[in-house]
Design brief:
5-stranded parallel β-sheet; Rossmann fold; 197 residues; alpha/beta; globular
């Protein structure tokens, strides 16, 4: 019998999802980070990396078998089709690991996943919370956080689901166009709503 409540946490790049995730952890939730799972999957010689190399080219790997992230990103985000292909290849590995981690889970579990909907993982969540922010705000945050050009940042942003999609398919929203303090206060309030709902 299931002894946990699974909350899906998602949102567009630069919206502030990581901060919200940290607040949820402070509230007592067990957080499963999809990005951390992907990092584990991207270890040299892994079945996941071999699958990606077969589709995107052997040169996405360095000579020691580790991933050349820049080369993969350049190919994977060069078109909507390639971005979708990357997800199609990686999502099954992530989902399999998620189910392993959920075995024996109790209480509130938050699955922090930027591609929650693309992976189809929303269907196993009891509710979904989306973190949203205006495009200009997100662009500024991405540029200050990642070592990429504005053009590359915009390319990544355009490859993601629209704000309208998140609003239509999520149960709760957290808007983050203000201060970090305001974001944390809103996150705590929404978390309590989601847990009770």
């Amino acid at each position: 019998m299931k002894r946990y409540k699974l909350i899906g946490l998602t949102g567009q790049s630069g919206a502030g999802k990581s901060t919200v995730s940290a607040v949820f952890a402070e509230c007592g939730a067990t957080v499963i980070d999809a990005d951390a799972i992907v990092a584990q999957l991207y270890t040299a010689g892994s079945p996941c990396l071999k699958t990606l190399a077969a589709q995107f080219g052997a040169d996405i790997l360095f000579s020691n078998g580790t991933l050349n992230r820049q080369t993969l990103a350049a190919r994977a985000f060069s078109s909507a089709d390639n971005t979708a292909l990357l997800g199609k290849l990686v999502h099954p590995f992530v989902t399999a690991r998620l189910f392993e981690l959920l075995r024996g889970a109790e209480g509130v579990v938050v699955f922090d996943a930027p591609q929650l909907f693309e992976a189809g993982a929303d269907v196993i969540c009891d509710c979904v919370i989306a973190v949203l922010a205006d495009d200009e705000v997100r662009l500024g945050r991405i540029l200050s956080r990642d070592s990429i050009t504005a053009e590359q940042a915009k390319q990544r942003m355009s490859a993601q689901l629209s704000e309208a999609f998140f609003r239509e398919h999520s149960d709760f929203f957290i808007e983050n166009n203000g201060s970090e303090q305001a974001l944390k206060a809103t996150a705590r309030a929404v978390y309590q709503q989601a847990v009770k709902g």
